[in-house]
Amino acid sequence: MDHRKSPPVKRYRRAEHAEKDESALSDLEDRNYVPYVPVRERKRDKLTKLGNKLYKDRAAKNVESSESEKEELTDEEDAQAMARRENISLLDQHTELKKLAEARKESAMEKQLKEEEKILESVAEKTALMGVAELAKGIQYEEPIRTSWTPPKHIMDKDQERHERVRKKYCILVEGEGIPPPIKHFDEMKFPKVLIKSLNKKGIVKPSPIQIQGLPVVLSGRDLIGIAFTGSGKTLVFVLPILMFSLEQEYKLPFTREEGPYGLIICPSRELAKQTYEILVLLCQTLKDEGFPELRPCLAMGGVAVTEALDTIKKGVHIMVATPGRLMDMLDKKMIRLDVCRYLVMDEADRLIDLGFEEDIRTVFSYFKAQRQTLLFSATMPKKIQNFAKSALVKPITINVGRAGAASMNVIQEVEYVKSEAKIVYLLECLQKTPPPVLIFAEKKQDVDNIHEYLLLKGVEAVAIHGGKDQEERSKGVEAFRSAKKDVLVATDVASKGLDFPNIQHVINYDMPDDIENYVHRIGRTGRSGKTGLATTFINKGNEESVLLDLKHLLIEAKQQVPYFLATLQSENEKYLDLGDDKGCSYCGGLGHRITDCPKLEAIRSKEASSIGRRDYLANNTADY
Ligand code: AMP
């Protein structure tokens, strides 16, 4: 066998493998080849890699936190987050930060408004002002009452723009459907000449803003919510039309025995009721003297014998002026009926509700046998009352002359810090600021008596009234002061609401009332009928901070000087106090707090909670009336 023959295939094949393995090895060697890198360069590469990893980690963390905790980011965190974005200019960072802060503020504001809305709803819901009978029968009047009165043709022919111009000129704000035009002269309102003459004699020549718009509204038969500062002439807005309506009724079908009243005016205090009654008596007499049919008003209030009212009722009564307590009593005993009553006025309506007469008014409503024209008047009318009232009125028109609860701009308001022990002596000095007549208000009956005694000792001609004195003494005191026989009247808030004393030069608040509304009412006794008055208020550390804040903001609004100790007083919620049109508290009207911090609402709620089923608090609250 020749060994030099070509090798067997198998060997060949093995050789082939061997060749392949060799080339694979050399390939591997090529791939594993690492070129030499100097140590310095290797270190630099490592550092770059580490830096990139760190940046990626941070970016991921940022996205997470901005999504889940966006709202809770503080300004500082915002600033840090922004600083990380190195490629944004400082100006852009600032704009972005500002936007973030604004968005946060807006959402907090929205939260506050939502909370307030809830509170308001809870207040408004349970106090729908409807009679029990109406509620029970589900009666809802849809259309206002129609009267025979229409505005003069030449005013009807004028366009809406003219009406808007007049309203703007006299700062009259109106709300509602189909508002009658404002009328600038009494004779254009079609009142009898004799009535206009009688008003002229009292110095009432041209209608005041509330009368310019209010009288056409009431004469047209529309329901009204009238908001005007005290002394603006709102009494005539409901007194003149009821005289006209009563005359019309009397001409159609004279009132005979025990008929009437056709109009009912409810007032929160005896003094206010008496004052309104006296205006009615005077105007009815004027009409009668000139040959018009006799109109009989009557006064129903505590402190006056029921027999007096009954005498008039027996003859047939056209207009009744009443305080709620006596009215309820007479209705209860069937001494009067409201079968033919078609005109209801609630003067100082917010006071009536505040004093706890809400239930009584609801009951009074149930005595009406047909639709009535309803008018609510007040100097202060927080939203709670507006909501409350709207449910009982038919397509009401709201007339607002100045902000509800705003102080009269005709009063110079001076606020002085006087320590409690120095007040009585300083009072004498304060009395020198103006000539008489001067009104002094104090919260407590005891203080009124002390001041009165002190002034008498010092030879000042002073009288005093408060709820602890009997009606005769109260009436005599008011009369002596009104007729200028006495120079100074010292009183509790019983004299602060709606009372009209001519030419009061100076109102002194011996103490700051707990409620800013009372302050507005008190100082409204001066600066009436376009004249300028002065109000001095003593405050000190004993006053609640909340009412002082309200006072501070009221002074700012009325462009008065704010004393240093008030100016430095800061509210916790200062940033929410003025949300555009929505200023201060929508419940009580105070400008120094929001409804969420309203001390009055809080007090009422805790009182309600503690006196469920009892009427004690009503008795306490109304003791002075
Ligand atoms: P009142 O706001 O209704 O309590 O009215 C306050 C005072 O203003 C009263 O003394 C009225 O005699 C007086 N008064 C009412 N209307 C006018 C008017 N149009 N012009 C001048 N004084 C008026």
TrEMBL record:
Gene Ontology molecular function: ATP binding; hydrolase activity; JUN kinase binding; RNA binding; RNA helicase activity; zinc ion binding
Family: Belongs to the DEAD box helicase family. DDX41 subfamily.
Biased composition (Acidic residues): 69-78
Broad class of enzyme this protein falls into: hydrolase
Presence of the UniProt keyword Zinc in the record: yes
CC annotations in GO: nucleus; P granule
Residue stretches making up the Helicase C-terminal domain: 410-570
Domain Helicase ATP-binding: 215-399
InterPro entries: DEAD/DEAH_box_helicase_dom (IPR011545), DEADc_DDX41 (IPR044113), Helicase_ATP-bd (IPR014001), Helicase_C-like (IPR001650), P-loop_NTPase (IPR027417), RNA-helicase_DEAD-box_CS (IPR000629), RNA_helicase_DEAD_Q_motif (IPR014014), Znf_CCHC (IPR001878)
Native species: Folsomia candida (Springtail)
PANTHER family in the cross-refs: ATP-DEPENDENT RNA HELICASE DBP3
An individual GO BP term: mRNA splicing, via spliceosome
Residue ranges occupied by any CCHC-type domain in the UniProt entry: 585-600
UniProt motif Q motif: location: 184-212
Domain DEAD-box RNA helicase Q intervals: 184-212
Protein name: RNA helicase
Keywords, ordered alphabetically: ATP-binding, Helicase, Hydrolase, Metal-binding, Nucleotide-binding, RNA-binding, Zinc, Zinc-finger
Region annotation (Disordered) ranges: 1-28, 58-78
